[in-house]
Amino acid sequence: MATSTNKLLCVKFEKVRATSKCAGCSHDYCYDHLQDHRQELNVQLDHIGNNHNRFRQRLNKYINNSQIHAFTQQVDQWEKESINKIQQKANECRELLKKYINENIHQIEINLNKQTDQLRNIVKENDFNEIDLNELNEKLKELERQLHQPSNISIQKNSTSSFINEITVVTSSDESIGHKTETKRSLNWDHKIYSIRSTVNGKFVTAEHGGERPLIARADKVDSWEKFKIKIVNKELNHIALKASVNDKYVTAEHSGYRPLIANQVSIDKWETFEVIEVAHNIVTLRSIANNRFVCAENGGRDSLIANRDTADLWGKFEILPFY
């Protein structure tokens, strides 16, 4: 660990003594404090070893049961929510159909009663011919059609509806996203309000406490804190600025990205400008123009958003969803 011996100021003792320089931290230590420093390093090594063993235990759990992984649980949650939405919509449609079908049956019954009276009169008067019989027969067929295929009721499927958001599993290639040669597709931002959802935990990005705190991906639903406006800075380069709807201020990567993202700026400069890179259908990454680094939901979304990554890994992928 020590590389040289001189009489210099010990970083711990703050007096000039015979010292050795630590090759790791480049500080000068006297012989007594050099041993203390070595002991500190041993403690740190033990701590890393303990963390290593704990991580091995967690990894073994995943090896034995991949279903407990957070990504699998996200798919399970999406499945449950989608089924609930479908069941709710199906119940609503059944109730509407019940109402409309009953109204249709009631009208058919009225028309059938009229035909019943007409038949009785014909039989009573014994006054009818082929034309009358054909007319009665056609009316009866029409009532039959109205019973099975009402002309005023239909079932329509909307193929363009975002009733259920499609999910996909996306994995990065070995090549860094930040260094790929890509053909950029100009993205459209036609809606007034958007929400941003992190793919790593399925949570929405929120400007907590009305924008006074840094952005973090931990909201389960979209409310006022989770709504953002998009300002196009350069359409060809897909450069945008994000404005939090809750306080009408722009999101900034303060101090060239060294601090977490926060919505506290009233104007747009390079700290407030982000490049949107589409990596899959409805999946994008955000790269800060201030430091050319990718925004990520640190610690799997448990910590604030910050532009500090050279590459966009799983923590750095988001869905920008129009809010209707």
TrEMBL record:
A single GO cellular-component term on record: cytoplasm
GO molecular function: actin filament binding
Keywords recorded for this protein, A-Z: Coiled coil
InterPro entries registered for this protein in UniProt: Actin-crosslinking, Fascin
CDD domains on file: beta-trefoil_FSCN-like
PANTHER family the record matches: FASCIN, FASCIN-2
Protein name, UniProt field: Uncharacterized protein
Species the sequence originates in: Adineta steineri
